[in-house]
Amino acid sequence: MRWTLLASDEIDLKIANRRYEAISKIVRKTVKGTKAEKLTLSDLLDEVLLDKYLGIPLFLVIVWIIFQLVFMATAPLSDLLDLTFSSLRDAIISRYPNNPIASMIANGIIGGVGTVMIFIPSIFFLFLCLSILEDSGYMARAAFIMDKLMYKIGLHGKSFICLILGFGCNVPAVMATRSIEDRGSRIITVLVNPFISCSARLPVYMLISLIFFREKAATVIVCLYGLGILVTVLTSIFLRKTVFKDIPSMFMLEFPRYKLPNARDVMLLTWDRLLHFLKKAGTTILFGVILMWFLSSYPLNAPLEETAIAAIGKFLEPIFAPLGWNWKVAVSLLFGFMAKELIVGAFGLLYGGEEATMMQALRESLSPESALALLVFSAIYMPCLATISAIKQELNSTKWTLITVVYSLLLAYTLAYIAYILGGIIL
Question: Cα Rg for the chain, rounded, in angstroms?
């Protein structure tokens, strides 16, 4: 008898095939067939929502509808908050006209933090919609829809869940990558997560989009989120092809049944996310706004153009001049490094505390193409300080942390310049 030496993987495959053949024979002899169960509503919904052709387009449509609802449902509340903060600011200034403490409260805290707080209804409604999708069972399906794409770009299926968390805040999203067993996929997911637009960027998107793009604001914002996802995909492919060449492991996920969202669970999840934003507004944003007010008030009684904050902004202005931005925009983006909400807070401080005044001043200082470049830059440039700290903690690597910051800055500038050129042609 002649023996042929087989590779170990071929032997394993033959053994597995023999086992399945034996199992099939036993099943045929012992199991009697029954009528197929009727499809449940959950099964019928999955037939549509998980379809390989319809799944992703339907997901994008759902996201677009959410942002349309955010604009429509929250505009009256945002206007009411704006009126409240403006009246409070005017009352303090008129009551204490030459008091430096009153100036800090009125122009600094209310002018800066108040400008950010105007967007709380929008952020609350966005969190509410995401919580409803999660509690209904759809978000698990969204992870499944994207699993094939995740595998093609070299990421683990769990990476999508981490990226979805990034729409709320990049910090817990980075920390959630601990659940990814595959080292390469985990590192890549950490590095690309900051490109996912977190809720802190939404006030910037809404403010600039409403000023310059009005009726198309929701579509512009969806495109910005899409740009972040596209950059995430392309960067992941690049890293997988060049640095982390191991193949990601397979992903298994159990689907929960579709159900009507529980109001209590949805509100608790929404409140938990909103509370994180409010704590940030009361700490990091408040500190940043007070620091900006101090820099904009020193030297005492000096015009804004001659203050310390103007000196910092004018130092940066030549770098951003090709994008059509003045020193106020440049210094606002610098403070956005502390927290992205501070960009809007800086606009409120530097362009006037009242929303109407600020919006008019921004409309006069920016062209449509430079506004588009600003949106693109804000979507891509370096993550906030808390996210950078989380990246350093999770990867335990100063090298990769610095690479993330430098790469995002260079890429953001390049894409913003392209947007500025194209915007000048199209807009």
Answer: 26
Contacts 24+ apart (CB under 8 A), 365-368: 365/326, 365/328, 365/329, 366/212, 366/324, 366/325, 366/329, 367/324, 368/212, 368/213, 368/423, 368/427
Contact predicate 191/274, CB 8 Å:
no
Q: Which two tokens stand for residue 53?
A: 């052709």
Report whether 349 contacts 332 (CB < 8 A). Answer: no
- Cα dist from 367 to 66, 176, 212, 327, 361, whole Å: 28, 40, 8, 15, 12
CA-to-CA distance for 309 and 294, rounded, in angstroms?
Answer: 9
Contact by Cβ (8 Å): 339, 285: yes
Candidates 200, 203, 205, 204; CA nearest to 220 is 205
- Both tokens assigned to 294: 């101090």
Kindly give, in sequence order, each residue whose CB lies less than 8 Å from that of residue 6, ignoring residues fewer than 6 positions away: 14
> From residue 306, how far is each of 296, 299, 314, 365, 367 by CA, in Å?
9, 8, 10, 19, 25
Q: Which 3 state secondary structure label does DSSP give 244?
A: coil
Q: How far apart are CA 224 and CA 208, in angstroms?
A: 12
pLDDT digits (tens, 9 = 90+) for 283-336: 777 888 888 888 888 887 778 888 899 999 999 999 999 999 999 999 999 988
Name the residue ranges covered by the structural domains of the chain: 47-247+266-426
Q: Please state, as a whole number, how many other Cβ atoms lie within 10 Å of the Cβ of residue 346.
A: 27
Q: What is the pLDDT of residues 352-394, one digit of tens each?
A: 755 567 788 889 889 999 999 999 999 999 888 888 888 888 8
Q: State the Cα torsion 35-41-42-44 to the nearest 10°.
A: 80
